[in-house]
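User: What would this chain look like folded?
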Amino acid sequence: MTKTVICSRYKKELPALEQPPLPGPMGERIAKEVSVQAWLEWQALQTMLINEKHLSLIEPDTRKYLSEQMWRYFANEATDTPEGYQPPT
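Assistant: Here's the prediction, encoded as structure tokens.
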């Protein structure tokens, strides 16, 4: 049987991640609150933000920014998008 979570983004029971995607308490929290679907969608958005905004993951400010955007995404709050981005229809 597949493990499930009540996804913080979709507010319904969905398949859970098999293991925490990050080390430490943040990864544990994500594993308990975020579905596989929401995590994969966040990874796509994160990649777009990194590429389009030319972010460097070496910078502590960048990691803080991405963490803030991630939690906003999982809470269904508005997140940054690259300038001129139009979501697919």
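Helices lie at 24-33, 36-52, 60-74. If you want, I can go into more detail on any region.
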